[in-house]
Specification:
30% helix
Length: 175
């Protein structure tokens, strides 16, 4: 069964405001990402790095990068009996179910889009035992053996997400 981890623990320094709490057409970014995960079939959605009203796990290594949150979220999903994980970044709340379809349809051990470390789908048993919180996501993807797929051309802006107010404005206007 599929679970989801939404990474919300970044400093949001380039955005100048908490990315998870940003309003995207009347809905917080974290809620858009969680709803996407549920539509994709996630039985449990966990936020990693902050409590926004969804089940959450603390980032075990704040400031060291997102892999610590991924590992903590994956451990929570395993405890709940889930075997596969959809990884989402809160700063890409305009991703659509169609954008995720190639990842969700990928065989084990899972997949990511080439050039975009998130979103990704990973079989939890494929997470490297030696993974460290300070690893870049690309190393985790490589060591887990994820398949790299060509990103859908029409989805590239949504996959990149919004790290600055200008990027957020562009996505709010439809790209």
């Amino acid at each position: 069964m599929l679970g989801a981890v939404i990474l919300v623990g970044g400093a949001s320094s380039r955005m100048g405001a908490d990315k998870a709490a940003q309003d995207w057409g009347g809905t917080r970014a974290v809620d858009l990402a969680a709803r996407l995960a549920l539509r994709a079939g996630a039985a449990l959605v966990v936020t990693a790095g902050g409590d926004y009203g969804w089940p959450f796990v603390a980032d075990p290594a704040p400031g060291e990068g997102p892999v610590g949150g991924i590992l903590a979220g994956a451990a929570r999903l395993r405890r709940e009996g889930l075997a596969r994980c959809l990884l989402l970044a809160v700063d890409a709340p305009t991703i659509t179910p169609a954008d995720l379809a190639p990842l969700l349809g990928a065989d084990a051990p899972g997949a990511a889009f080439a050039g975009y470390p998130l979103p990704a789908v990973i079989d939890l048993g494929s997470l490297p035992h030696a993974a460290r919180p300070d690893w870049p996501i690309a190393r985790l993807i490589e060591r887990a053996g994820l398949i790299l797929l060509a990103p859908p051309e029409a989805a590239r802006e949504r996959l990149r997400g919004a790290n600055t107010p200008a990027e957020r404005a562009a996505l709010l206007c439809g790209g």
